[in-house]
Design brief:
Layout lengths: L1 H24 L4 H16 L9 H4 L22 E2 L2 H14 L4 E6 L3 E6 L10 E6 L6 E7 L15 H14 L5 H12 L5 H16 L2 H6 L1 H11 L4 E7 L8 E8 L1 H10 L1 E10 L7 E8 L5 E9 L4 H4 L1
Antiparallel strand pairs: 1-5, 2-3, 3-4, 4-5, 6-7, 7-10, 8-9, 9-10
Helix pairs in contact: 5-7, 6-7
The structure holds zinc ion.
The site of zinc ion has 7 residues, from loops.
């Protein structure tokens, strides 16, 4: 055992000079490496069985935050690392709401985030947390954490923002299309012990709907890409987008959209009787409009889709 230990010390001794070479190359790492080497000596004395277990030297010194760990009893502490201040903020808001406290961000920018209790003045609660960037890297670490709230828990929590509530609303809204705002308020009280106002619950529902359905406005701007893709698939597919130009400085507005697939057209010409029926239906989205469709009848006397159009209103102009 003693022999083995000497051997180890010798090995370290010759390992160190090589390390020193790297230290010259990057002065910034001097401190960190020194600390790690010290740590290794300590663990050797404790009776480490594998002296060449040098992987431990490179192992993470700080704990990386994982979203799945977050719960009411989660322990934040100095040294926990986040990938962005946004991640830290979301985590601390969730933790705060679950525990029934209220916080405010006194410093809040891209590289640092300082949080205090909202009742700092009123209840003399000295809760304080600071998370900031580490040496210009893409890592943000908790540098200060004095996590003991001495204030009283609140019933109606303003830290439960509509954005935060909306995340909890999304699954409920998917399973129940007609989810009521009052149900959201009840659910939040039951599941999280958080009281929220009607207005906030309503806003959360709107955000959740946007998350599920996507942003309708943005989808309109994807229309050009869709048209290009239809063209790419087959050159004989026909697509037409009409836009209205309100003014020279304003963005063009959606007018109408028409498309017909080559396959549909061929099938109609070769296998259907020469009848075309036309009809339209209303689109139940934020912006309304109507979907027009031209159909034929196939050999089995079934409807055969031929061409589609989306217009603002069904009139003679739009059918052309
Ligand atoms: Zn507090």
């Amino acid at each position: 055992m003693i022999e083995g230990k000497e051997y180890r010390v010798k090995k370290r001794a010759c390992k160190n000079p090589t390390k020193k070479k790297t230290k010259v190359a990057s002065k910034g790492h001097v401190l960190l490496e020194d600390v790690q080497i010290d740590g290794d000596y300590e663990s050797d004395e404790l009776g480490s069985s594998d002296p060449d277990d040098s992987d431990r030297e490179k192992g993470p010194k700080y704990e990386k935050f994982r979203k799945t760990q977050l719960c009411k009893t989660f322990q934040f502490k100095v040294g926990v690392e986040f990938s962005s201040t946004k991640e830290f903020k979301e985590a601390i808001i969730e933790w705060t709401v679950l525990n029934g406290y209220e916080i405010k961000f006194v410093k809040n920018d891209l590289i640092r985030c300082r949080v205090v209790c909202k009742k700092r003045e009123k209840d003399d609660c000295m809760f304080l947390a600071l998370c900031s960037q580490v040496n210009g890297q893409h890592t943000y670490r908790i540098k200060t954490w004095d996590g003991d709230h001495t204030c009283l828990k609140v019933g109606e929590n303003r830290s439960a923002t509509s954005k935060w509530v909306s995340k909890a609303v999304v699954p409920a809204l998917i399973s129940n299309e007609n989810l009521r705002v009052t149900t959201i308020m009840d659910d939040m009280r039951r599941d999280y012990g958080v009281g929220i106002t009607f207005g906030r619950a309503w806003k959360a529902k709107m955000i959740a709907r946007e998350i599920i359905d996507g942003d309708a406005t943005k989808q309109y701007s994807n229309l050009w890409r869709y048209a290009a893709e239809i063209h790419r698939a087959s050159e004989k597919n026909t697509v037409k987008i009409n836009v209205e130009r309100v003014g020279p400085t304003l963005q063009p507005r959606f007018g109408s959209f028409y498309f017909c697939f080559e396959g549909c057209r061929k099938g109609f010409l070769n296998g259907c009787r020469p009848f075309i029926g036309v009809d339209g239906c209303h689109l139940k989205t934020q912006y309304g409009g109507q979907l027009l469709i031209a159909v034929g009848r196939d050999a089995n006397d079934q409807y055969y889709p031929l061409a589609f159009g989306i217009v603002e209103v069904e009139n003679k102009e739009s059918w052309r």
